[in-house]
């Protein structure tokens, strides 16, 4: 029903770009989700800078705190959506297919320097040879390791392969108090699909086929995910956040409950602020099956196809994702720039903590799973955790998740 409604509104006659003819500023509504107060303050400052440079445009910024995509989809159907809004790459395939986003190709001129964007990231917002979004920032996944724990275990460098990671984990799993309870696990497991999909691809598998149906219950899927199950069940050198009483992978690493964890760039400011005494380093995700792989997460600014102010909406998008706006947005380091020139100017390619994130972009797997990703993600997460806990065999769990996901997708087609 949502898809049909989107199709109807997408086919309506749409107004031409608005030309400012009076001194009254055009109001552009920008919507995003809630974030760290520091990030919110920074974005508001950048929007003020934009308004100074574009006095004929005023930006009304709205934070949608809960159920962001549900709110956006409802407003798109009701013709009340913002002019410009955040769109996660994970949700992009569905909206791009519904004819509710404005293609940006015609607005992009040579001076905008589209080639400056990381191609892997930009491709997440392409559909049928059109660009529907320009990515504002990104993060890949990278290995975080506790340098003090490594030194205590006699380890001098991060693991380069997954076999090495498992071997290191055994050395790093310790009972510090000699009371029969493990105080530090070698590795912190985050079982959600968003953190496991690259292991499936390392053996040649995919999350979805060309028609958007789940395919993760393949031989490749079992091989990749069996690595996680074996380390957790057989080696007993890995822990989940619930095993050690924490709320995230970053927290269990920061508290010293695990010596290694694979996390995103967002973990760096969190660890520095929350655990200032922690001595840690980062490295590329260890190779699996002799292949380099990681995930890349990104968010774009997109334009509502129904906006009455397309020219002004483009001015805002082009500023926020242009070299000046992106440098301001990513200069503090909590987000990484999707423009190569900005990353180089800010020195992130030489930053010991952040350079592995940039290196991983070229081979990263975008976090996308077709037009109906929630069906795939939710069913995978529910069944895989069951297999991880030993409640059912991995192959059985994956097949159940895939079958149920595809039933839901078929019903939504």
UniProtKB/TrEMBL annotation:
GO terms for molecular function: maltose binding. Pfam families: SBP_bac_1. GO terms for biological process: maltodextrin transmembrane transport; maltose transport. Keywords: Signal, Transport. GO terms for cellular component: ATP-binding cassette (ABC) transporter complex, substrate-binding subunit-containing. Belongs to the bacterial solute-binding protein 1 family. PANTHER family: MALTOSE-BINDING PERIPLASMIC PROTEIN, MALTOSE_MALTODEXTRIN-BINDING PERIPLASMIC PROTEIN. This is Extracellular solute-binding protein family 1.
């Amino acid at each position: 029903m949502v898809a049909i409604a989107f199709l109807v509104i997408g086919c309506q006659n749409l107004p031409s770009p608005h030309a400012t003819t009076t001194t009254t500023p055009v109001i552009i509504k920008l919507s995003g989700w809630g974030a760290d107060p520091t990030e919110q303050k920074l974005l508001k400052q950048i929007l003020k800078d934009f308004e100074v440079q574009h006095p004929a445009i005023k930006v009304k910024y709205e934070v949608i705190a809960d159920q962001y995509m549900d709110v956006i989809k409802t407003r798109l159907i009701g013709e009340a959506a913002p002019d410009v809004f955040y769109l996660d790459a994970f949700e992009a395939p569905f909206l791009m297919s519904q004819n509710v986003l404005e293609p940006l190709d015609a607005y992009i001129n040579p001076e905008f320097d589209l080639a400056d964007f990381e191609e892997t990231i930009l491709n997440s917002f392409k559909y049928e040879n059109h660009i529907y979004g320009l990515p504002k920032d990104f993060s890949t996944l990278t290995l975080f390791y506790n340098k003090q724990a490594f030194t205590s275990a006699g380890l001098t460098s991060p693991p380069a392969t997954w076999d090495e990671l498992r071997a290191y984990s055994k050395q790093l799993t310790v009972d510090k108090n000699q009371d029969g309870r493990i105080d530090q696990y070698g590795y912190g497991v985050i079982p959600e699909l968003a953190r496991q999909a690259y292991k499936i691809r390392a053996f040649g598998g995919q999350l979805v086929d060309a028609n958007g149906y789940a395919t993760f219950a393949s031989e490749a899927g079992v091989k990749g995910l069996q690595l996680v199950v074996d380390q957790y069940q057989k080696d007993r050198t890995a822990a989940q956040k619930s095993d050690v009483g924490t709320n995230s992978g970053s927290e269990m690493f920061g508290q010293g409950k695990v010596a290694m964890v694979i996390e995103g760039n967002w973990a760096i400011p969190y660890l520095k602020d929350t655990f200032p005494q922690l001595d840690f380093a980062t490295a590329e995700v260890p190779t699996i099956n002799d292949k380099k792989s990681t995930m890349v997460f990104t968010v774009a600014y997109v334009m509502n196809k129904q906006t009455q102010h397309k020219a002004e909406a483009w001015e805002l998008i082009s500023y926020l994702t242009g070299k000046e706006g992106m440098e301001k947005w990513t200069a503090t380091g909590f987000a990484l720039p999707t423009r190569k020139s900005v990353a180089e100017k800010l020195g992130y390619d030489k930053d010991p903590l952040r350079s592995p994130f940039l290196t991983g972009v070229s081979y990263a797997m975008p976090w996308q799973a077709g037009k109906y990703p929630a069906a795939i993600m939710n069913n995978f997460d529910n069944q895989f955790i069951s297999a991880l806990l030993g409640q059912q065999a991995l192959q059985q769990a994956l097949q159940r998740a895939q079958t149920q996901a595809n039933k839901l997708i078929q019903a939504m087609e």
